[in-house]
Amino acid sequence: MGILIVDDTDFDRNLLRSILLSAGYEISGLATCGEEGIRQYHALKPNLVMLDLIMPDINGIEVLRRIRIDAPDAKVMMCTSVGEESMVDLARRMGARGYVVKPYIADNLLGAVQKILGPPGKSRT
Q1: What 3-state class would DSSP assign to 82?
Q2: Which residue stretches of 71-103 are H helix?
Q3: What is the pTM for the complete model shown?
Q4: Rounded to whole angstroms, how far apart are CA atoms 35 and 102?
Q5: Are 46 and 21 in contact (CB under 8 A)?
Q6: Going from the N-terminus, what domains does the chain have, and what CATH number goes with each?
Q7: What is the pLDDT of residues 46-75, one digit of tens each?
Q8: What is the side-by-side order of every strand in the sheet holding 98-102?
Q9: For 71, which of 43, 45, 51, 122 is 20 to 30 Å away at the CA?
């Protein structure tokens, strides 16, 4: 179970991992592109997907759409930069549970994750 992080940027992927691990959350996988994220989602069945909105192969909106075809209850949180509000709105309409804005502020990130999963070690199914 745990959290799957899908982000093409090494720095952002590792920062998310570090913040989440230090708070006590389990990381089930790290994906460097959208296609890999979809494959890992189906293999790992994580409690939450932290999904970058802008990636070079396929964007986060398409990854979200494809995950939710087979897993309509999948918990997905979008990771976005300022100025991508219209895409975040679309993602929310497509079922994303929330979003966090880069650059990441640990308290904001952890608060958003806790709203979806609860405190570390108490993941909701």
Answers
A1: coil
A2: 85-93
A3: 0.93
A4: 22
A5: no
A6: 3-117 (3.40.50.2300)
A7: 999 999 999 999 999 999 999 999 999 999
A8: 27-31, 3-6, 48-52, 76-81, 98-102
A9: 122
Q: Are 48 and 76 in contact (CB under 8 A)?
A: yes
Tokens 């093409």, residue located: 8
Secondary structure class of 64 (helix, strand, coil): helix
Q: Give the whole-angstrom CA distance, residue 24 versus residue 86.
A: 32
Euclidean distance between CA atoms 24 and 45, whole angstroms: 19
Q: Is cis: bond before 103, omega within 30 of 0? A: yes
Measured CA to CA, the distance from residue 46 to residue 18 in angstroms comes to 17
The closest of 106, 98, 105, 111 to 48, measured between CA atoms, is 98
CA-nearest of 7, 52, 47 to 30 is 7
* Token pair recorded at residue 84: 């991508």
Q: What pLDDT score was predicted for residue 87?
A: 85
82: pLDDT strictly greater than 70: no
- Return the DSSP state at 121: T
Strand partners, 16: none
Q: Under a CB-based contact definition with an 8 Å cutoff, are residues 98 and 77 in contact?
A: yes
